[in-house]
Amino acid sequence: MSDRTGSDPGLGTTDALAAAPVSGGAIRSALRGRDHDGRDRERRGPVAKLRRLGIGTSWPAKVSWVFLVAIVLVALAGPLLISADPVRQTSSAMLPFGSPGHLLGTDDLGRDELARLVHGARPLLFVAFASTALAAVVGTGVGLLAGYAGGVVEQVLMRAVDLALAFPSILLVILLVAAAGPGTTSLVVGVGVSLAPGLARLARALAARETARDYIVAARLGGTRTPRVLVQEILPNIAGPMVAQVVMTLSVAAGFAAGLSYLGLGIQPPTPDWGYMVQAGQEFLYSAPRLVVLPAALTLLFVVACNFVGDDLRDALDPKGTV
Fold first, then answer.
1. How far apart are CA 214 and CA 180, in angstroms?
2. How many CB atoms are located within 10 Å of the residue 88 CB?
3. What is the pLDDT of residues 154-166, one digit of tens each?
């Protein structure tokens, strides 16, 4: 039998390869390779990465993540989508649900309720995130320094932290805000300072544990400066538990912000705010309960979602149960 690839000039190399018999094993190998490529692409997706971290595995966590993302998007982009002015007073007061031009009705001053809810998300979230960030920076810094330095430095810093924790948090916030005067800035500072001691205690415990490990001892013996040890060595190794605790602290900050606005010490009118909306609508609790129920429900759902997300992050980032 002659070699067709060599004797038949009309049959090229490609045709010869195509005409060559292919074994079933080769086909299965090719299909497995294609399946592996597909699974690799799936594993590289953002959802798969979150699943590998263990984030969003339970349905309460999934719902909470979706709700938090939705609330943040509403706070950022909602005012651009809602054309109604949340502070404009009209003669159309106390319109019910589904009124023309007012999907959620109006309040006692004729202001659109949907616009006020959408615009009211931004001040609450700003205060909650800003005060939590302040508490995280101050608390983590104090705790890192105390846990790493030990000795007299640790005693002085932690006694100050214990003194701050001796006061009820809400009372400390009220005192700080009342001393500085109501407003966004004083609210952020007051809530942030009141929440920092709790984060400082956790950071000190984690930093003290890491300081005793061999890699920190080696870094100190090698002459590495203290700021570099704290930032580049210890902080990355305690970031997981701290992030989980910071997210859970966010719910407390949101509750404080709404509560102080309800008491008149937070966001000042006419700026819409969920806490102040509850206070302004309680007069009409029986005749128009939506004025109280809607902002109160949104605040409650935000707080609960932060707790579920914090629990989810704790399980994923701190599997040993440090927090």
1. 46
2. 12
3. 999 999 999 888 8
